[in-house]
Design goal:
Elements: H1 3-29, H2 35-56, H3 68-92, H4 98-105, H5 108-120, H6 126-150, H7 152-175, H8 179-182, H9 184-206, H10 216-244, H11 246-252, H12 255-267, H13 274-299
Helix pairs in contact: 1-4, 1-10, 1-12, 2-9, 2-10, 3-7, 3-9, 4-7, 4-12, 5-7, 6-7, 6-13, 10-11, 11-13
InterPro entries: AA-Vitamin_Transporters, EamA_dom, EmrE-like
Subcellular location: Cell membrane
Pfam families: EamA
Length: 300
């Protein structure tokens, strides 16, 4: 198998596994688990693996000189990109369906464009503007259909998931210059450890302290999220990006909403209306159009 074919395989598996997280969260919520407890389980169960990886690569030199300021930035991005983004996402899933959550999260590339314009004054091109407009029209179509059913709860859930997309996009924009210094593996492990510490502190301050009182299924879902929706896909995606490049991989991301909706249909019995299907396809078209045009500009 060629390197490109292997990259596509890794990318597809990584995207599908990442997409399964929302379905696992919804399944765990059926057992009345607290949001913060479930998030704590996910991070604590994955923590030993990231510590082990750091131990295994401890002798591998960094690609550049790392200053105390770099570590401070790393702590900030771990807080924003993994703790805040995850917390908002888990909270939002209390109110909206898994399929809708993935569609809203999928707009993060358009938020990256906005933030790059706001922070770095990078001009938003006509192509980017068209892609962003298409994407948000698709979200509106999907979202509007849900409002007819659930009303204010969907508004709250959608807003929380949008906050998750904004914080994750902020992480992508801000950490791009930092990752080459640490290397992908070391940066990811450090960021995940920092995120776990943030969640532990949050739990100490506001937790229910009932984390030992759940049925075994809750802990099983927490472990499954840690291994199959966090750890394994994080390295599959890194391997895919290494073989395909970030631009090519971003196109594979279009599979995310589709796989989540299919998994939600199978495991959660979530129904998909014609308007939701149209909205989903419009969102995927908008983001894919943005990714393809960005790839063409990079080549040019």
């Amino acid at each position: 198998m060629s390197s490109k074919s292997l990259g596509i395989l890794y990318g597809v598996l990584g995207v599908v596994l990442f997409s399964s997280k929302a379905v696992m969260v919804k399944l765990a919520y059926r057992y009345d688990v607290d949001t913060l407890d479930l998030l704590l389980f996910r991070m604590l169960f994955s923590l030993p693996f990231y510590i082990l990886i750091l131990f295994l690569i401890r002798k591998k030199p960094s690609k550049a000189k790392i200053s105390p300021k770099d570590y401070a930035w790393l702590a900030l991005f771990g807080f924003v990109g993994y703790y805040l983004a995850s917390y908002f996402d888990f909270e939002g899933l209390n109110y909206i369906k898994a399929g809708l959550e993935r569609i809203i999260l999928f707009v993060y590339p358009t938020i990256v464009v906005f933030l790059s314009w706001l922070i770095f004054r990078q001009k938003i091109t006509k192509v980017q503007g068209i892609a962003i407009l298409i994407t948000y029209v698709g979200v509106l179509i999907t979202f509007w259909d849900e409002l007819d059913v659930s009303g204010n709860e969907v508004l709250l859930g959608g807003f929380l998931v949008l906050l998750s997309a904004i914080t994750y996009a902020s992480y992508l924009v801000g950490s791009g210059w930092l990752i080459p210094k640490f290397g992908v593996l070391r940066f990811t492990c450090y960021a995940m450890i920092i995120s776990t510490l943030c969640i532990a502190i949050h739990y100490l301050l506001a937790g229910s302290w009932e984390f030992m009182d759940y049925s075994w299924q809750v802990y099983a879902y927490g472990l499954a999220m840690a291994v199959f929706a966090t750890l394994i896909p994080s390295f599959l995606v890194s391997a895919a990006i290494e073989r395909l490049g970030a631009n090519n991989f971003s196109i594979l991301g279009s599979l995310g909403p589709i796989s989540t909706i299919l998994l939600a249909f199978v495991f959660l019995d979530e129904k998909l209306t014609y308007w939701q299907l149209i909205g989903m396809l419009v969102v995927i078209f908008g983001v894919t159009y943005l990714s393809i045009q960005g790839k063409k500009r990079a080549k040019g």
